[in-house]
């Protein structure tokens, strides 16, 4: 009878799963072990082949240790696997059998195969896919019985086998925290989302949210738990708390009046000391009020403004606020949504602009008065100049020949004065315009219209166009024609030649278009080139006022263009206007 036959005679009577292992190979297995491992004939197979890959070495080492007498612990928890890969956590009693002559073998008798453990192993693939650590531990001594892949990663362990059998105490940064968790589970049987500081096997710490329940498995109580790493969340919460505290300090100490307002009700949640001083109420009184109590705007309109601020459609408002003593103050309110400790509020900074608003109103009134005065003066001056021109024309045929020159001077001066009133009108329009009325302007048609007008007004001048005018649309406004009108008239009126010659050219260069007006007049000396566009500049001590060139520079600058003057060849000046192309 072989040794295996000898073992079989004894072990066949055992109803629990039994297997005999010699040198890592199964030499005997009863029917119950075959059922446990879903194996038809385990004999001759390596014992490690009946365990999952991550625990196969544990099973083999334990069998070798028992056979060689290297262990005094004859009970162990091992994991075997069925044919379908189901993991079965079992408790075994181990016995060293055989003789010194035949060599020793290990007989394993499965004495405990918990039904719930089988359920755990059956669902292990699902548990390994979870993004949280899942574990099972014995309540009495804290021994880890099972863990999923995420817990292995959280604990910085090598494998599940590396964790299994360890005391859960090693995973707590503070051992007392583990006892507190165990006490709660003993008393209540449940632990819900408790944050504890944990420690990896390599000594690094992290914060975990721990939830667990207890379960009775035969004669012992186990803990089934879930651990989620909340380190980043806690760090973010800490940072948010620090920022909130910084905001509160800034809010409290700032010299500008500040309010925290409920966007739904308009209720004032908080006010700083500066707001209390400005409004004349205590901070406590303000916190019990609504913005309707301060703002004279109708409630429905004020609610609409709060909605705009909350939606970030607008964050700057001009209101009339009433102080505790009845004073009315004009205020600018800069209001933006803010989240403070999970509370959505409107953070409002109040700026008293009463004095500025009054000053702006006075300026508006003065502007209106100046506009009226400008219109009246221009009207009256033009009327008087028309009379001067009429009488001078009547005298032209009545005076002696030697006095014709005087009459001509009167007519020229009166004409210049009329032009001055027109230029003054244009300058006033520019200065008194409140809003930006820039828009695309057709360059060719605008320039051709002014060329025709100057030819009609000065038939003795030779006004020509070199090349063609590009069909471009430029950034301008309703007064762009005044730019070309003044440059063309300036080229004729300030010309000292018997026949003034004016040549106009235009070209487009990428995103800009340039118009040049060249004449054969006296030119502009270099020292005067930078100053000639200044208000009231008269150039070569001519009888012109220079207001036209000032208007040119003002209008061109208003539409984002540029104007300059250079020498013409062989004589005269060239004025260049560069405008941005709009098409």
TrEMBL record:
Question: Which residue ranges run through the membrane?
Answer: none
Q: What class of enzyme is it?
A: transferase
Q: Which Gene3D superfamilies match?
A: 1.10.287.130, Histidine kinase-like ATPase, C-terminal domain (3.30.565.10), PAS domain (3.30.450.20)
Please list the reactions this protein catalyses. Answer: ATP + protein L-histidine = ADP + protein N-phospho-L-histidine
- SMART domains hit by this protein: HATPase_c, HisKA, PAC, PAS
State which Enzyme Commission number(s) the record gives.
2.7.13.3
- What protein name applies here? histidine kinase
